[in-house]
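Input sequence (287 aa), recorded before submission:
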Amino acid sequence: MTTSESLLHRPHDEAPARASLRAGSDRAGASDRAGASDRAGAWAGLSAHAFEFVSRGDFVNGVLHQQPGGSAAPLILVLHGTGSAAESSALDFAADWVRAGFSVARIDLPLHGRRASPKLSDRLVAGYRSLASDQPLDADTRALVEEFARQSISDISRAAQALGELDNVDASRIALVGIGVGGTAALWAANHISGLRGCAVAGGAGRFADSALDPISEFDAASQQNVSSLIVAPSGESEIPATSQTAFFDALPEPKRRVDVGAPDHDDGLANDAVNAIGDFLKETLT
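Predicted structure, token format:
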């Protein structure tokens, strides 16, 4: 399926994405409520720049971490879990990837983190979880989830575009790492990212009975011949049925692999074996 035929992606007529960078994360006040990590902790000693860009009329915020003074490095865009945020401490594991030589960026997905809405965010999370478990959605909730998907595609692809313009980012080597709803969003957006080399989905991922929102029905295998996929499937309870997870993996094009891991340490985090599996995958895929 080409971009022009996608039921979700409606190309928005706007100028090429440009990231406005500011030294430091400078978001502690707002993101502490979402479990923000301590800048003196996991990310200590790493270059940090808050950034912002425009996507379909929304201001999208995030943070980019790099080793100080490094040369152009591959970019890993980390997409947080369902109901979480870009600066959640559950994503602190990604700091080790910066020390391994990668650039790591995180953004708030629509209606999450600084973009949260008292009226709509909880409804979106409940709607996504119902969609993932093949429960019916009322018309208004389905419209909200579809708009979330469309906005996420724009946000993720434009984040990759904007950050790829930076001198110290290698735009020809990009990977997406998504947890929960971030994993689904990664697959929705994968068709639209130039330079994508790897996509790792963790915390449960599956086929959706709603074919228009199913991430695999939108996944263009022909355009993904140079993209490797990793599915990290947690054992035990998951919002995604096991049969749906299996169908999801079976539908992905090669090259792909699946790793079954233990339960996550946090609701929106990953177990150590999941982090290790993704780290190994990234090194193989991007270096």
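Checked by second reader. Helices lie at 28-31, 95-99, 121-132, 139-164, 181-189, 242-251, 272-286.
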